[in-house]
Each structure stands twice: as C-alpha cells, then as structure tokens.
Design goal:
The chain has 213 residues and is α+β, with helices and mostly antiparallel strands. The protein contains 8 helices and 3 strands; from the N terminus they run ααααααβαββα. The protein has 2 domains: 133 residues, no CATH class; 72 residues. It is elongated. The termini are far apart.
Length: 213
C-alpha cells in the first residue's frame, strides 16, 4: 500500500503530459522537417519515432519509482549497442538515431523545478544545431573509387599529373589524388584507388555480413 502511494505521489500526470508534448513536438520536427526532406527514407522515420517514444515512456515510468539515474544511462548504453544487421547504415543515420534516443531521456528525466523553459531551450538548440549541420553544403566529402587502369606507363611517379588528368578525362570525376594498389604485369593493368570530392558521401559502413566472412 505504501509503495502504491509512493508511486502515485511521485508520478505527476500534468508534468508527464507536458514533457510528452515537448518530446513529441521535438521528434516530429526533427524527423519530419529536418531528416525526411533531406534523406527521403520513411523506414528510418518509423524507427526514430518509435525508439524515442518507447525510451521516453520507459524513463518516465521508471523515474516515477525513483530508480537511480545510473539505470537510465545503462538503458542508453543498451540502445547504443543495437545494430541493424540487414543493411548498411550511414554514420549520419546512426547520429539521428542517438539524438532521438537522447531526446527521450532528456525530456523524461530533466529537472523542471524552475519551469519548462530550460527543457524547451535544450530541445530547440538540438533542433537548430541538427538543422544547421545537415545543411553544411559548402563542406564536401572525400569519396574514393577503385579503378582498373590499362595504361601502366602513367602510374610512374614522374607521370602523376598526367595520370590524374587522364583519369579525370575518362571518369568525369574531379580526381585530386591516386594511390596504386597493385600492378598486374601479365595483363598490363593496375588497380588504382582514385579520390575525389562530392557533396554526398558514398563510403558506407561495412555490413555485419562482411565482418562474418
């Protein structure tokens, strides 16, 4: 009986509702107005929203029975080791995933004794920072591509500039650096790794199936 009274007194419906509204509005703005217009992937929206809401509910309900904050960080650590084993996930998508999980923790556990202003400001700062970082179009990614090259004469160090110019001409890519990986003198070819800049990153994280091999 005493435990039930402790839980009911610790769990404030009005406070929970206000926190839930702040969290829901923030996650909708994050995935609906920042993530989706840029990446157009509705499957990740399902995961981001679901993980955020479930994490918010767990932390809110467990916080009502005064479980130590260390448990919340343990929960975050548990979510952080989750991997999608079917597809390769970009670093940016993983970043969005952690932000969604962290928002659920912040909005459910942060102190609101002095009002909800600090909580709202924190959410706004996270949204603004994500929006700005997502749209840093002036920064470029260095991608690389393996090329089987048939003119081994140009792979000599003295012909480096000629090699880069020839690769630019053949591939249409703005190549700025080339590494020689291997040379096959029987076929008179060389395996090159060409580096070039582009707005989108084409270097994906290896999948779990690659590691299992």
């Amino acid at each position: 009986m005493e435990n039930e009274e402790l839980v009911s007194s610790a769990f404030n419906i009005a406070q929970f509702s206000n926190r839930a509204i702040i969290d829901f509005v923030t996650i909708i703005l994050l995935v609906g107005l920042i993530y989706y217009p840029k990446h157009k992937n509705k499957d990740f929206i399902f995961n981001f929203v679901l993980f955020n809401i479930v994490n918010f509910m767990i932390c809110s309900l467990l916080g009502a029975v005064k479980i130590k904050i260390g448990f919340a960080f343990g929960l975050f650590a548990m979510f952080s080791i989750i991997r999608y084993r079917t597809i390769a996930i970009s670093i940016k998508d993983m970043g969005y995933f952690f932000v969604c999980v962290a928002l659920g923790m912040i909005n459910s556990l942060a102190s609101v004794e002095d009002g909800y202003y600090v909580l709202i400001i924190c959410n706004a700062v996270i949204l603004l920072l994500t929006f700005l970082l997502e749209r840093l179009d002036f920064l470029k990614n260095e991608n690389n591509k393996d090329i089987v090259y048939d003119n081994v004469e140009l792979i000599k160090p003295d012909n480096k500039l000629l090699l880069i110019q020839d690769l630019k001409l053949r591939t249409g890519l703005n190549i700025h650096k080339v590494d020689v990986i291997s040379i096959d003198y029987l076929k008179d070819t060389a395996l090159l790794k060409a580096y070039y800049f582009s707005k989108e990153s084409l270097n994906l994280i290896p999948t779990s199936t690659d590691n299992d091999d």
